[in-house]
Amino acid sequence: MSSVSTGSTSAAEALAPAAAPRRRARGLAHGLVDDLGEKIRSQQLRPGDKLPTESAIMQAYGVSRTVVREALSKLQAAGLVETHHGIGTFVLQPRAAGMFRLEASEIAATVDVLAVLELRISLETESAGLAATRRTEGHLAAMREALDDFERNVAVAGDTVAPDFRFHLQIAQATGNPYFADIMSHLGTTIIPRTRIPAIRNQDRRGEYLSRVNREHEEIYAAIARRDPESARAAMRIHLTNSRERLRLAQEAAQREAGAAAPAA
């Protein structure tokens, strides 16, 4: 992938904000997402372009690193960019639709699934950080086996839920704190959104979706393997935030379609 646009405007130059980001915290992240998303859709940032570093984006927009990471996570979830650890974040070819589409009958179920994802973001982000400092070679081997099983089952359209859950449970066990694993075991495989949302399970682009999920898993694994707690926390947060954003975007689209289809009063 190219590191900059091949035209006269570099990715760094294209990054200049259209307007100062508005509001604080979450509002700033949404403003950054809107601005970068529009630049991608208008081809100011082209497919294959490498985005500037987090520090450069912070300077260009006058925002914190937390805001930049939240915005990049949302752009990843929307399928507009993809981050490769140690290399950078690259612009993808924009798509008209998200990773999957919900039926109107599935909207209610997404409310609880999104709530579980919020819990997981808090719980598993710290779990990943602790696992990076406390894991044994045995824990690492079990995580690797789960990821390999996941990848094999993607290729043959087999069960990916069990190895997905095993991977996350192994991270909880690697913390050395039994309460993390107890909570995960109590929640069980229902923490995996596709066990409860048929649209995710049966989507046409299932292989692409699952491959993206597993790439996020690999980022978590790599950080834990090299005993890097901050990167492990960041990778887990990105993975779970992406899951939440993918589902939230599909939920909003389904709600709009349901509203448009409703008869006028």
In percent terms, what proportion of residues is strand?
A: under 5%
Cα-atom radius of gyration: 19 Å
Number of domains: 2
Give me the count of strands.
Answer: 2
Distance between the termini: 52 Å
CATH architecture name of the largest domain: Up-down Bundle
Major sheet, described briefly?
Answer: 2 strands, antiparallel
Q: What name does CATH use for the topology of the largest domain? A: Four Helix Bundle (Hemerythrin (Met), subunit A)
Q: Could you give the order of the helices and strands?
A: HHHHEEHHHHHHH
Shape: globular
Q: State the low-pLDDT regions, or none.
A: 1-8, 19-25
Mean pLDDT: 82
Mind telling me the CATH superfamily name of the largest domain?
GntR ligand-binding domain-like
Helicity range of the residues?
55-70%
Q: What is the topology, as strand order, of the major beta sheet?
A: 1-2
Number of helices: 11
Q: Structural class, please? A: mainly alpha
What is the CATH C level class of the largest domain, in words? Answer: Mainly Alpha
Architecture blueprint of SSEs:
Blueprint: H1 11-14, H2 26-41, H3 54-61, H4 65-77, E1 81-84, E2 88-91, H5 107-134, H6 137-155, H7 161-174, H8 178-187, H9 198-202, H10 206-225, H11 229-261
Antiparallel strand pairs: 1-2
Helix pairs in contact: 2-4, 3-4, 4-11, 5-7, 5-10, 5-11, 6-7, 6-10, 7-8, 10-11
